[in-house]
Write a structure and sequence with these properties.
Length: 354
């Protein structure tokens, strides 16, 4: 659970935090509702929601005082602050205008850095959060194991994606992390292609990118499989992506620059003359949202901190021919803990022939 005083202390004097995005409210309260508001004031921390969720919230939320969102005006009158920092990234202009009209005596500040405060806190996971990510990842891996023996030429990408989704949900996933990617053959050269009615053929590579959600926390993994014996070039590209992915993971450690992980991956591709075929960034944080801070790209100037969970997911995409991507989730280890990170993905990475 984050420290609320850490958040309010980082805001200008006399300013309370007005947190209304569902992911941030969930982070602060541990409770999921789609109409919620957290107010962090010098007087206390409050969780407001509507009557659909009120009773459950009163049972589940311990760290904040739970109130009916219909009584927001009364609560605002009780609080000492007249100035509220809002999440600029999540607040629409319309919502802000309505709020200002309703509470003309209050000031709503969009430039106090509240988003960044919450983003930075959320990037570093505690043991409970990592446990949920691990559980989600285990479900994803078990689902993959279950569907692989049934994959054969003639099946469509859609059928494979649906099978994976069904098994993840059957195994206890609360939800899917995102729309499962299943792309094959020439379609595999689209990094985020949508599963189509294309039928698998012998000689195809098949890329599956998918994840499960447990307790609000997401998992994310990618593997590429060969349908029948792969050709020499396909094999070479698979080996190169694996070498780049391992170089990326080896670069993950507390204190490393995010762009250094990206550079480690790119260096392997560049040395093989293939850099131009790696067309996206190397990785991203994973947690209550599938993509969150930090970003591992050329332009990311952040630093990796112990407890952050990030993906390392290089790929090579040969337009009109085929694509390969391998993705693991790793947690940045504390300094002196041995290796620089702990891999939360247990699934083998050697090319598998189906
Ligand atoms: Zn992914
Ligand atoms: Zn990813």
């Amino acid at each position: 659970m984050p420290s609320f005083s850490h958040i309010t202390a980082a805001l200008p004097a006399g300013t309370a935090a007005w947190v209304s995005s569902t992911a941030n409210c969930r982070y602060l309260s541990g409770f999921a509702a789609d109409n919620c508001l957290c107010l962090l004031s010098a007087r206390g921390a409050y969780y407001l929601t509507d009557k659909r969720y009120l009773e459950a919230a009163q049972k589940a939320v311990a760290a904040l005082e739970v109130r009916d969102i219909e009584k927001l005006t009364e609560l605002l009158n009780e609080l000492p602050e007249k100035r509220f920092a809002v999440e600029a990234e999540h607040t629409t202009l319309a919502a802000l205008a309505r709020r200002q009209e309703k509470y003309p005596r209050l000031e709503f500040a969009a430039r106090d850095g509240l988003d960044k405060l919450l983003t930075d806190l959320r990037a570093v996971k505690d043991a409970r959060e990592v446990e949920l990510i691990r559980r989600a990842q285990i479900i994803a891996e078990q689902a993959l194991d279950q569907i692989l023996p049934n994959i054969r030429p003639g099946q469509t990408e859609k059928e494979i994606a649906q099978a994976l989704d069904f098994v993840m949900l059957t195994l206890g996933a609360d939800a899917l992390s995102f729309e499962t990617i299943a792309v094959s053959g020439a379609h595999g050269s689209l990094p985020h292609g949508v599963p189509s009615r294309r039928k698998l053929r012998s000689g195809d590579l098949l890329t599956l990118d998918f994840g499960a959600v447990i307790g609000g926390y997401h998992s994310d993994m990618t593997r590429t499989f060969a349908i029948g014996k792969p050709g020499d070039e396909q094999r070479r590209v698979c080996e190169l992506v694996l070498a780049a992915q391992e170089a990326g993971i080896a670069a993950v450690c507390a204190g490393a620059q995010c762009n250094a992980v990206d550079a480690a991956v790119r260096a392997v591709f560049d040395a093989a003359g293939m850099g131009q075929y790696f067309t996206h960034s190397t990785g991203h944080g994973v947690g209550l949202e599938i993509h969150e801070a930090p970003t591992l790209s050329k332009n990311s100037n952040g630093t990796l901190l112990p407890g952050m969970v990030v993906t390392v997911e290089p790929g090579l995409y040969l337009p009109g021919r085929f694509g390969v991507r391998i993705e693991d989730m790793v947690q940045v280890a504390a300094p002196g803990e041995g290796s620089g990170c702990v891999n939360l993905t247990g699934y083998p990475k050697e090319p598998v022939v189906l």
